[in-house]
């Protein structure tokens, strides 16, 4: 039996979704849940960095993860405090080191993220210097167990839809599950959790419900995680960057099926796919009757 998550979505948190009354295809009145979306402005010390649209949970993790993935927090930086004001919709991360990123913030790349993610100019410099562990392994039996466990976990997606999920895993165990309106936010929350809890990356697997784009590959590599899995498809640049970085890239992972386009040498085919369970009907990311 799969052990409990360390941290996972609370699909019934009233702050994360709300009920809206509308009319369905037959003209009948229907109540449906929709996810919350609100701004969060991030400051690093006294400098305003970005305003993000988010569902609003775990602002501390989102802030630290964003700064970490944008190379705004150095490995030796000491975080002295994180302050969040719900009324002002502001989160402030304070460090011992003085910071100034005015020049860095002039050069931005708008990514293919659903909520228009942003990558700052020098991220690729850090990307090119990261050496992912070559001895990391992924057994296909783990992959089958992970996809089944993740896709049957109660989630805000299955409750209200219109949201992405990301999961940090080790072997066949999902550890931390985060959701948000943009997949980059869900990634950053996990990066923030790893940073604040000093969790090593070399033995981890990263799972996302979203497409395997350049942004997803860059963030996974920047986090030092050697294996990235999605139930969705690929982009050409995402594949090219994964091959360049030596990242194991697995897409279209549904039930007993998957496709590997980079880093196949890390995979141990230890289980006959015929013995794996197909994805339970109604439990996958295509949504439940409630979400549709």
How are the SSEs placed, and which strands pair?
Elements (H helix, E strand, L loop, with lengths): L16 E7 L5 E7 L2 E7 L2 E8 L4 H11 L9 E7 L4 E6 L6 H4 L2 E3 L7 E3 L2 H5 L10 E2 H12 L4 H5 L3 E7 L2 E8 L2 H15 L7 E4 L5 H9 L4 E4 L5 H10 L2 E7 L2 E6 L4 E2 L24
Parallel strand pairs: 3-6, 9-16, 12-13, 13-14
Antiparallel strand pairs: 1-2, 3-4, 5-6, 7-8, 10-11, 10-12, 14-15
Helix pairs in contact: 1-6, 6-7, 7-8
Can you describe what's shown?
The chain is α/β, with parallel strands linked by helices. The protein has eight helices and 16 strands. It has helices at 59-69, 102-105, 123-127, 140-151, 156-160, 183-197, 214-222, 236-245; strands at 17-23, 29-35, 38-44, 47-54, 79-85, 90-95, 108-110, 118-120, 138-139, 164-170, 173-180, 205-208, 227-230, 248-254, 257-262, 267-268. The protein has a six-stranded mixed beta sheet, with helices on both faces. A hairpin with a 2-residue loop joins β3 and β4 (47-54). α6 packs parallel to α7. 40% of the residues are buried. Residues 107-117 and 286-292 have low confidence and may be disordered.
> How many helical stretches?
8
Sketch the major β-sheet.
6 strands, mixed
For the largest beta sheet, what order do the strands appear in spatially?
A: 11-10-12-13-14-15
Task: Spell the H/E element sequence.
Answer: EEEEHEEHEEHEHHEEHEHEHEEE
Taken from the alpha-carbon principal axes, the silhouette is globular
- Rg on CA atoms, Å: 19 Å
- Could you list the spans in which at least 5 consecutive residues all have pLDDT below 50? 107-117, 286-292
Structural class: alpha/beta
Summarize the amount of helix as a percent range: 10-25%
Q: Got a strand count?
A: 16
Query: Roughly what is the average pLDDT, rounded to an integer?
Result: 86
Distance between the termini: 29 Å
Strand content: 25-35%
